[in-house]
Amino acid sequence: MQRIYRFINANARRPRGLMGRFLGWLWAWESRAINDKAIALLDLESGDCLLEIGFGPGETIRRVLARYPGLRVIGIESSDLMLKLATARNEDAISDGRLSLRKGASGVVAELGEVCTHALLVHCLYFLDDLQQTCERLSGALKSGGVLVIAAVVTDAEIPARFMTPAYNFRSTAEILAALETAGMHAEVHQDEGGTHGALRWFRATKP
What we know:
Residues 51-150 form the Methyltransferase type domain. Keywords: Methyltransferase, Transferase. It comes from Limibacillus halophilus. Pfam families: Methyltransf_11 (PF08241). The protein has a 7-stranded mixed β-sheet with strand order 3-2-1-4-5-7-6, with helices on both faces. It has one domain (2-206): Vaccinia Virus protein VP39 (Rossmann fold), CATH 3.40.50. It is an alpha/beta fold. It is built from 8 helices and 7 strands, in the order αααβαβααββαβαββ. Helices cover 39% and strands 23% of the residues. β6 and β7 (200-206) form a beta hairpin.
């Protein structure tokens, strides 16, 4: 069973092939409630600019653009397959200039400058090797008063066995909060009160 977990999780890090397509389909539905809470914490308004790191198949982008007609979105994704799927899912928004999708990792964020009012990372912090550098780059991409929301499984809770492979680099709640604070942001943590996602935390950080 552990071999199967290793195979699936390796594809989760950089989805490709048939397994990547399956994961893209699965993520579009499995993570919907998690993304909905993250979006609610962002407090978006029409006219804002949202940066999403690791947008996967682009379903959250599609839904958030439909909900906020004046919103602009910049997406950064390391997987060619996810970039292809998200592009097909959001062709109209790309055509009318509301959406820009780019290939790359967190290093691309450093090239943006202070252009965004909000930023979002859901279930992708595990694949970014340098937590502190990532938080600093995200802070640098936000305007003053900007809001960053991160949804991530943390080590100070019971992590499901299927995720315990080398593909994932989990951090503790304290580590993530400290990285956000060191990056110059005011951070707070939210937990799933219903207990459905016991190891998951939502981090909301504001840039002064």
